[in-house]
UniProtKB/TrEMBL annotation:
GO terms for molecular function: carboxypeptidase activity. Keywords: Carboxypeptidase, Hydrolase, Metalloprotease, Protease, Signal, Zinc. This is M14 family zinc carboxypeptidase. Coiled coil: none annotated. Its cofactor is Zn(2+). It comes from the Bacteria. Residues 23-90 are annotated as: Disordered. It holds the Pfam family Peptidase_M14. Residues 1-25 form the signal peptide. The keyword Transit peptide does not apply.
Length: 860
């Protein structure tokens, strides 16, 4: 029997929650390094086989007649109580088997707590892919409207006037420290939700002085379940198949956009993200490499201190390996060499610092209850494990609340300092060796911020629609963007009026830079990376973005931008040419084709729209911000929207549908069951289709399709299908499996990559050799050192590195002897819905395959 009490139990004073804070500087032990354990969840190369959230949610709630709201009246007092709609009981909710709280029971519980306590407020912050409500619970002492308005003014001053805020005694004395707890972002890592509910209930009802003191000086924000769809279904991803904890710099999913807005609005000093399962409990901070855009000296000091604090609280529970199967907690920064880094800003705790969190941690609770264990273990064992996991997560929350309460003044000062450095344009301050125990040269990662980024207007802009999308995305992330009222010169270069400027003297410069910089090649710094190593909105989103190292912005007349300017245009006379350079161009074309417009395909990958459809073109130009220029020539072939059968990863399918394609999901089993190919023009292959496993009937039907249809393949599955089906003559060569990042490419100017950007994205890169006479090369890796940013080492035998890929074919196309029009990608043009400037390459491949299929020679 367990001899240790719960950290938050009925009748126990909140003093038990406020465990002593451990100082990182007080830890005398050097940092021993251990090899990290193998992680069982999918982060590797085999991946899953910007609108304003406030406006988005308001429209959703209005449509269903709900009164819940979020993102409005930040000065409204507390409690801000909402009668939540209560979902019907779902006996199939996967939480039930574990003895945990099913989704349908959360709203009734929160409604009851709001009724019982004026400390608890609940708001709906978003709706999931399947339409379930997401709940933000705020626990704090009651505030009048005037008091809430005063808190909001202080919050704004901290961000917008940090130098003044640093001298403001009222902020030091009375600003309520925000703490953000995020639970259950991975749907089958359940217990963070139940731990949060226990803490909320305890704080709502406790009568002791410690609770009153905590809630008088703190606001605790709980995103009770960040992934309701995954929680119900017992899966890691959301219902669209996305790992939400990889989505923050892209924000493709409504759940991510809701979390992003909470962080912008609450500006947390500290956040923790509750996950599972690593035994012993894993508590960040992380190993190198560290994100180079953080004010890391402030971040590591606070995050390590809270990590030690959480470790002490979890140890105090008394669980042991022998009695409970629970190993002691581990802190990667202290205990590992590498392999659990905070380099990419795709994870919640790595994104939160850009909004002011000066301590931010993932916590991986210990005992596995998902996947095969969920299916195979007895219910009693699963519930025993879940009970321990809930207690561990609860202890982590309690220790973090203690940390915030006891270090409130210092944490506020550090958040102010983050914003002050950004607004002043100061250089980063690298932490010296020994800054916290174990901190050494291997932990120092910094960058040099440019004076500004310019997103030029006019003919210097690659795609006006892409530029507008990027500007809106920056603004949605709370990055400040201005627009020049007239032409100007900066850094020796002249830019036209209407150009956008991202002044890097701003509080959230780290977030601006992490999106707009090219990134860094960290190949030589570490061997193991946890996830992606390179990304760049400037290089991958299809817009032209120019970094300006130095210059004086004082003479540039600008105005602040709330939303990007309209970019749609339709030539007043003649037939119209729509260049398919961007995903928005593709979406607009598919909308026209759906409306019955008779467009044609030109050899350079342009769609020609007849003058008779000018009114329809104006409609889509206004809706999607695309440009219809006057056509210089007629198209060469009638064009219709390709009907696509997709054996695809979730993100590939999502991006295809996002561009307006009609997609029918297929896999090996579907083809073996007798798939009807009559309604298909192109087969897209990136996951789930094994040609060797097709039965005779399926192969015969597929063969008949290939005599008239097209194929677009990506990655190892696409390349393997091409070889097995005997399509293009090409030998695929695999690079190192975990290599990934932004690469420089040269484009061949054909129908697929004409006018494509000079950069692409790779993960487990591939290239093609031994090309037959029917094959044309659309894109090659750059001839020298193709990696711009990321991590790409050779394999142990010296093969598979970026030098081996240099100059090799990355994208090829051709028509095989049967007439199948095939395009193969060795790059990752749709990866996690992120590299939006690459999307059009896939769309053009689909159109080209559809109009070319049946021919026996490569064409333009």
């Amino acid at each position: 029997m367990k001899r240790f009490s719960h950290p938050i139990a009925g009748g126990v004073l909140l003093a038990s929650l406020l465990v002593p804070v451990t100082s990182a500087a007080a830890d005398p032990e050097p940092r021993p390094r251990r090899t990290p354990p193998v992680r069982e969840f999918g982060n590797g190369p085999e991946r899953n086989s910007a609108a304003s959230p406030g406006r988005e949610l308001a429209a959703q709630l209005k449509a269903r007649g709900a009164g819940a709201h979020y993102g409005h009246a930040r000065t409204e007092g507390y409690p801000r109580q909402t009668k939540l709609p209560e979902p019907p009981v779902n006996p199939d909710d996967k939480s039930i088997k574990l003895g945990l709280t099913p989704y349908h029971a959360i709203a009734p519980k929160l409604n009851a707590l709001q009724k019982a306590s004026d400390r608890v407020s609940v708001e709906v912050i978003g709706r999931t892919h399947q339409g379930r409500d997401m709940y933000l619970v705020t626990v704090t002492a009651p505030e009048s409207r005037a008091e809430a308005a005063r808190q909001e003014r202080m919050r704004e001053k901290i961000e917008n006037e940090p130098a003044k805020a640093a001298r403001d005694p009222q902020i030091k004395r009375s600003y309520k420290a925000p703490l953000f707890v995020n639970g259950n972002i991975h749907g089958n890592e359940w217990e963070g939700t139940d731990a949060a509910l226990r803490v909320i209930e305890r704080l709502a009802t406790a009568k002791d002085a410690a609770t009153a003191e905590l809630l008088g000086s703190t606001r605790l924000y709980f995103n009770v379940t960040a992934n309701p769809d995954g929680r119900v279904d017992g899966v890691r991803a959301n219902a669209a198949g996305f790992d939400l904890n990889r989505d923050f710099v892209t924000a493709s999913q409504p759940e991510t956009r809701a979390m992003r807005q909470v962080m912008i609005d609450t500006q947390p000093l500290v956040m923790i993200d509750l996950h599972g399962y690593v035994n012993g409990t894993l508590i960040e901070p992380t190993t190198p490499p560290h994100g180079q855009n953080y004010e890391y000296d402030l971040f590591i000091r606070n995050t390590y201190a809270n990590g030690l604090n959480m470790e002490a609280a979890i140890k105090a529970l008394g669980y042991t390996p022998d009695e409970d199967g629970v190993q002691p907690p581990q802190i990667p920064f202290r205990d590992w060499d590498e392999g659990w880094d905070d380099w990419p800003p795709i994870f919640t705790p790595q994104y939160a610092p850009f909004h002011g969190a000066v301590a931010s941690s993932t916590v991986e609770i210990p005992l596995r209850v998902n996947n095969a264990d969920y299916t195979d273990l007895p219910v009693a064992e699963l519930r025993r494990r879940s009970k321990i996991n809930t207690a561990v997560a609860e202890a982590a929350i309690g220790a973090t609340a203690s940390f915030v309460a006891q270090r409130r003044t210092a944490l506020i000062a550090d958040q102010i300092e983050v914003f002050r450095r950004g607004a002043a344009g100061e250089r980063q301050r690298p932490a010296p060796s020994g800054w916290v125990p174990g901190f050494g040269p291997e932990d120092v990662y910094t960058t040099r911020f440019p004076r500004a980024y310019v997103i030029p207007a006019g003919t210097r802009q690659r795609s006006a629609a892409a530029a507008a999308r990027l500007v809106d995305h920056l603004i949605a992330n709370d990055v400040r963007v201005t627009r020049a009222a007239r032409g100007f010169t900066l850094g020796g270069t002249a830019y036209p009026a209407g150009s956008y400027i991202v002044d890097m003297h701003q509080p959230k410069r780290g977030l601006a830079n992490v999106m707009l910089e090219a990134g860094g090649d960290i190949t030589d710094k570490v061997d193991a990376m946890y996830d992606i190593s390179g990304w760049s909105h400037a290089l991958l989103w299809g817009a032209t973005v120019t970094p300006v190292a130095t210059g004086d912005l004082r003479g540039v007349p600008v105005r602040e931008v709330k939303t990007a300017a309209p970019t749609g245009y339709v030539a007043p006379t003649g037939d119209l040419a729509l260049r398919l350079d961007d995903a928005k161009d593709v979406t607009a074309l598919n909308a026209l084709l759906d409306a019955g417009v008779k467009a044609t395909w030109a050899a350079d990958g342009t769609a020609v729209v007849p003058a008779s459809a000018r009114a329809a073109a104006r409609t889509v130009a206004d809706r999607y911000g695309v440009r219809f220029e006057r056509a210089a020539a007629k198209g060469t072939a009638p064009l219709r929207k390709p009907r696509v059968a997709a054996a695809a990863s979730s993100d590939d399918a999502f991006a295809l549908q996002e561009m307006g394609f009609d997609v029918t999901a297929v896999d090996t089993a579907a083809l073996n069951a007798g798939f009807d190919w009559s309604g298909v023009d192109v087969l897209y292959v990136s996951s789930g289709l094994n040609h060797a496993q097709l039965n005779e009937r399926a192969r015969t039907a597929l063969g008949a399709f290939l005599a008239r249809g097209g194929v677009v393949g990506r990655g190892s599955t696409g390349a393997s299908f091409n070889s097995a089906a005997g399509l293009l003559t090409a030998t695929p060569v695999a690079g190192r499996a975990d290599a990934n990042g932004v690469v420089a490419v040269s484009n061949g100017g054909g129908a697929v990559t004409s006018r494509a950007p000079g950069a692409s994205f790779v993960y487990s890169p591939r290239w093609f050799t031994g090309l037959g006479p029917e094959v044309a090369v659309e894109q090659r890796y750059a001839a020298q050192g193709p990696l711009i940013s990321g991590h790409w080492r050779p394999d142990a035998d010296g093969t598979g590195g970026q030098n081996a890929a240099a100059g090799q074919a990355a994208v090829i196309r051709g028509v095989d002897e049967r007439g199948a029009a095939v395009v193969l990608f060795g790059t990752e043009p749709l990866f996690r819905d992120h590299p939006k400037g690459m999307f059009a390459q896939v769309a053009r491949s689909l159109y080209w395959s559809a109009v070319t299929a049946g021919q026996r020679r490569p064409t333009g």
